[in-house]
Amino acid sequence: MKKTLLGLSIAAALVSLPSFAEVRINGFASIVGGQTLDDDDTLYGYDNDFNMEQESKFALQVSADLQERLSATAQVIARGENDFDAEFEWAYLTYEISDNSQLSAGKMRIPFYRYSDFLDVGYAYRWVRPPQSVYNLSFTTYEGLSYLHNSTLGDWDSALQLMYGAVNDDIVAVTNNDAAELNDTLGVNWTLSRDWFTARVAYFMSEASIDVSNSAQLTSLLNGLDGYGLSEQRQDLEIEEDDAYFAAIGFGVDYNNFLFDAEYTQFEVEDSILAKQRQYYASVGYRIDDWTVHFTYENNDDENDSSELNTIPAQIQTPNGPINVSTNPSDPNAPLLRDATNFVLLSQRAESNTYTIGARYNFHPSAAFKIDVSRFEDDITNTEVDLVSMGVDLVF
Questions:
Q1: Collapsed DSSP state (helix, strand, coil) of residue 167
Q2: How far apart, in whole angstroms, are the C-alpha atoms of residue 185 and residue 205?
Q3: Each residue of 104-114: pLDDT tens digit?
Q4: pTM, whole model, 2 decimals?
């Protein structure tokens, strides 16, 4: 019923367009399957049982040229991880200010990464999925404004994008489903390209608020800090109107049959429990007729600054007098708040390496078969997970 109503809504919208509007409908799909090679291992939503729903998706993009430099775009996508329930991913209007610049308003993709604009279009890149150590933020769209200016600087092509807006969505932060608000999000994305070389930098800043009530452990700790009057330490852990930033730099080479891509990103919500995230990948590829073979290395390093540890005072003043924050569990007056606070901060630590070898075969002008074999190494737990993924990406 949900999909039927959505389809009727789209059809009604198209019928209601003025007769002079030029409507284009494009689509893409990915049919992806994968499994880990050992029992009890999980990675990217896969386990030891072969699964073809986790990353499979189908999408339609509808664009309407309303003339007079105005156009409308909407994208509907159905993802296997969401039981293929269709939903609007994008919906925005674009006005061409000049031949080189345009202003868009609505719900759009946040240009965090080099492949952000076609992140869901698997046919656009060589991997089964983009390197997850870098492409790991669980939200990808925002509601607001975007200004794009294209120009030439000598022999270089320049694309400068400015965006402003907000995100109000459930994301993966402390748990897998935390309500988040990113307000006053302001960002810039600049891409320079010349012949076979492309370089890109991006920077975004925002005011972040994330509801952590889904974490019973963190909620209990915050209440404990409140109970002992440690409001400043509580504010340093909770995520309430905190400054956040995201920075990225990357470049790509497509020279004859040789391919190279690299991106480095950094993300932080200041004065919060969330660790500062640093990650990068480097990928080489080579085209042989309709085949592309590639190797990718990824690194992820998440860690809170050491200055955030041991911020709970050794002695706490209470109405009944001072008590010591002791690590001795036999002390009935010791709330163990320092240990608990350090524990939740240290629990955000992550350090991993991922190695992927894969191949892509363009067996059709609009379709490609891919296979990737990845090994994920967790340096904190000294564990390894091997994953085999394969699929078909197509555009139509």
A1: strand
A2: 6
A3: 999 999 999 99
A4: 0.89
